[in-house]
Design goal:
about 130 residues; mainly alpha; 5 helices; globular
Length: about 130
Amino acid sequence: EGARRFYTETAGDLPELGEMFQTMAVGEERHRDQLAALHQEATGQAGDPASLAPAGLMEGGIDLEQALTWVAGREAADLLELAATMEANAHDRYILVGRALGGEIETVFMKLAEAEKVHMGQLMEAFSERLG
């Protein structure tokens, strides 16, 4: 949820990143939905996985409010670098959790890790475009 909020709230800060960050926010919503389905399958109870996570944190344990404050006045490349770091952290954590849990649940977490890898690729492509 923190990553979704970060992308949504910063999409308007730099017009050249707006559309991309909105797309990233939608991707984070998909991840949330996948985790909610996994939670229901494992427990038999509906629930919002965001309610299980510490409030105000983004992927990788980054404090959302600090990140939003930091964004003010930054260049697009700075935001892309932060976002890529966040996505890389999420990718690695999904792999670690998936391997630790094993079985069918591991497959779900590996799919989430692959989605993060796609996000990293999108961010790195945008970053490369800005560096020439």
